[in-house]
Amino acid sequence: MKLHRIIIPLLCGWLGAIAVWIYDTPTAPPGIAADAAIVLGAAISGDEPSPVFRERIAHAISLHDEGRVQQLIFTGAQGEGDTLAESEAARNMALAQGVPAEAILIETQSVTTMHNLVEAQLLMRDAGLDDALIVSDPLHLRRAMEMAEALGLDAEPSATPTTRYQSWGTKLPFLAREVYFMHHFWLFGE
């Protein structure tokens, strides 16, 4: 028997199982509260959050308005060609929606999900915050929660209730990307 007849089906089965595991978005108990919401960065255009990032920011604002978190932590550095850091654009949107400035923390250094979480953890430590809800798109949360656990963050997932990734044509590329980056995290810790 040729080895590839065993390896290829095993590899396809493994990747398929990981994809299903990622697709099965981790969820926190309904109504769970925490000291802060960590909003994972996403692209901006100039000084405006992308539609994906707007969904994350809007969800965090809702968590704050509902009293489920006291602080919003926005993450993300300035991308090439942008006029602001991702976190600064998020702060501006939250301020415009009535969130008090003292309820917002930002970091402007991170460029990856792991770096977002490391920088947010430092902000939490400095502000005396103990636990967090991690806000991102449903398909991104499995990897983010694996990273949070590796960092020892006391965190629960809080997926955006709406997402730009609605059709299979948009979900499949995002899911494939997450399968790849999950393995990258497991292999390299980032």
Automatic annotation (TrEMBL):
Transmembrane segments: none annotated. Residues 35-167 form the DUF218 domain. Gene3D superfamilies: HUPs. It holds the Pfam family DUF218. It comes from the Bacteria. This is YdcF family protein. It comes from Aurantiacibacter gilvus.
